[in-house]
Amino acid sequence: MSYIAAWCHQQLLAPFSFEGCCNRTVFELWLEFILIPALKPGQTL
C-alpha cells in the first residue's frame, strides 16, 4: 500500500492510499480529484 498527502499547518490534507508506485498519472489524479477540491479559498500550491 502506498500513500500520498499534503502537509498544511502541521496537519495532513487530502490523504490518499493506493496500490503500487506513485507515478505521474496517480499524482495528477490525486491533484485533480482529491487535493484541489480540499483546498480552501486563498490557499495555493
What does this structure look like?
The protein has one domain (2-38). It has one helix and two strands, in the order ββα. It has one helix spanning 24-38, and strands spanning 2-8, 11-18. A hairpin with a 2-residue loop joins strand 1 and strand 2. The longest helix is centred in the last third of the chain and has 15 residues, at 24-38. The N and C termini lie far apart (25 Å).
Highlighted features:
alpha+beta; Transposase; two-stranded antiparallel sheet; globular; single chain
Note the run of SSEs as H and E: EEH
Averaged pLDDT: 95
From the alpha-carbon coordinates, what is the Rg to the nearest angstrom?
Answer: 11 Å
Spatial order of the strands forming the largest sheet: 1-2
How much helical structure, as a percent, in the residues? 25-40%
Percent of sequence in beta strands: 25-35%
| Global shape | globular
Protein name: Transposase
Organism: Limnospira maxima CS-328
